Structure formats: structure tokens, C-alpha cells
Amino acid sequence: MQVQPFFDPRTFTLSYVVFDEVTRDAVAIDPVLDYEPIGSYTHTESIDRLSAFVTSEKLRLHFVLETHAHADHLTGAQLLRRRFDARVVIGTAIKEVQATFKDVFSLAHVATDGSQFDGLVTDGQTLQAGSLTIRALATPGHTPACVTYEIGGALFTGDLLFMDDYGTGRCDFPKGSAAQMYESIQKLYAYPDATKVHPGHDYPPASRAWKFETTIGASKANNPQLRGITSKAEFVAMREARDKTLAAPKLLFPSVQVNIDAGRMPPVTHGKRYLVTPINLFRPADELGEPLAPATKTMT
Known about the structure:
Layout: E1 2-8, E2 13-19, E3 25-29, E4 32-36, E5 41-43, H1 45-56, E6 60-65, E7 74-75, H2 77-84, E8 87-91, H3 94-105, E9 119-121, E10 126-129, E11 132-138, E12 147-151, E13 154-158, H4 178-189, E14 196-199, E15 214-215, H5 216-222, H6 232-243, H7 252-259, E16 268-269, E17 272-273
Helix pairs in contact: 4-6
């Protein structure tokens, strides 16, 4: 098994093509569709790089595996589906995420039964991509629908477990849970120390370049947020306190409403497609949209 990473510096996302170098069977994990919020336009630089690799290596792409409905980038799953006839797969709990955000964005066109995806996987389910065997592990916490994929003994962890010098994903999105994240990571920490871990993001400090691989042993020894000896109470207290200090992801609104629909753009209305941007979703305001906060200025 070979792993080819792709790093998107705009969103710090790691995407992967995993393939058998003999049979050329392959899967893609968490591909990125580029989106520029100023001007509201998409472009395909990231997905074109991944596609060019699949084409140049003469790979047969069976699946696009989504670890969850991302909140920080749009998925390029539908482009890969169209270009390579690959099937798009996500965890079955996406139905819960769809039901939550359909109301937030008033998305009448979005079904909440997961039918937009070609396959929904459950905990422990295996998929066969030619010679590649993929095992899905339900690992909720960041979202209820997060899945880790085990392929060839390596773990692709999405936004659950990051590099061993960084930490874990946040848990403050709707239905997220630091307690669930702790239990999910314990499931991974039960793997042998030499098990490779490929995270869904890397946020490198100035002292190093981006990386795409660590191990379970390194994470248990070094992870600054959850080491092997960290208790559940310690982790939950740390994670919940840290999450209260984090700003919403820049691409939260466009990402979620596209990604819960398997990467499909909104339907055409009056000849155009429209993304929804709720106002004051995360803070109260009066009927004119002004924040409800004490006045800081007086007339003199």
C-alpha cells in the first residue's frame, strides 16, 4: 500500500490517495474544492493536483472516503465522482448532522437520510476497493458522524487526532462531544504503537514544514492535549475550555451546507446558485441586527 498526501495551505487540509502499487486500485480521502469567500467563487487547483496524480499513475479510483462533513473546506468529492466514476462514502451518522444543519440554513432541498452519498458505513464495516480492504471505525466527538478509516494497518483520522506535537480536533460544533472524542481516541490508542496515523489537517509551527504522518506511540507519548496517561476528566476540561476560545472556521457556513449534501452545490434559483449566510447565529442581536452589548460610548 502506498500513501500520497496533498496539503492545502489555505485550509491546512491533508487529503490522501491510497493505492496498491501492483493492482493500481485506489481510494481518495477528504479531497478539497477550493473556495474564495471574497467574491464567492470556487476553483479546482487542489482537486486538479489530486486528479492529475490519479491519472498519471493510472490508478483505478474506487471510493472517495469522507471522514466527516467538514466545517473548514468544501469537499471535492463530486468532481472525483464525475471524473473517475468513484463512489462517495461517509459514516451513517451523517443523517444526524444533516438534520441539525438543514434547519440552521433552511435547506429545503437537502434530504436527511444520507441518500446523497453512494454509501454509508457503520462501525466495523469493511469495504473492498479491489485489492484494498478498508475498515470503518466510528470515532465521534468532533462531529457525531466522524469516521476513522483503517487501510493496510494505517489509520486516517480526519479531525479526531492530529500530529503528535499539535493535539486533537475541536468539539464545540453542534452535537460535538469532548467526552465522546476521548473514548474515540482511546479506541485508536489500543492499536500497536507502531501504527501509522494520517491526520486530516496539519497546523505546523514555524519550526517545521507540514507533515502527514505520525504513530500511535508518538501520540500517546507526546500529544500535548491527550497522551496515553491523560484522564478523561482532564481531557474534557481542557478541550471544553480551549474550544470556548476558538473562533468559528472562516469557511464554516459555505462548507457545512455543501458538505452535508455530499459536495453538491445548492440548486439553481433564478439562474444562479446561492449559499446561505445566517446573521448573528453565534451571538444575540436586536431586531436591527445590532449586537446586544453594553454601550461603550456616550454623547458629550
